[in-house]
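[Automated response] Your request has been received and processed.

Submitted sequence:
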Amino acid sequence: MGPFGAGLAATGEVCGNVIGALAAFGLMFSRSREEERESPLMWSYSQQFLQRFREEIGRGNILCRDLIGVDWSDREQARNFHGSEKYGECLRITGETARIVGEMIDRHLEEKK
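Generated structure:
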């Protein structure tokens, strides 16, 4: 999961939290054998998560460079990231992402009962 950081291998692209959340839904709902069809739940939960992330966290964005405001190709900006307010914002986004994913998983488990 390390290469998810800084927007997929320090490119500033899709936030690693988004990729991690989608991976979790894939682990929960994706097919276990090649001949099976993908569960509609995988698509539904993934789409719901993306919508919630954009609305509740990303102000419409899912790109790291837009969320954090770091140009990862600029060594100085990347070096100054740790210990900065931008690092704190990244931690907040990580926590909020975990909250949303947890809520969605809890809801799914309750519905299964």
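Summary generated for your ticket: The radius of gyration is 16 Å. DSSP finds five helices and no strands in the chain.
If you did not submit this request, please reply to this message.
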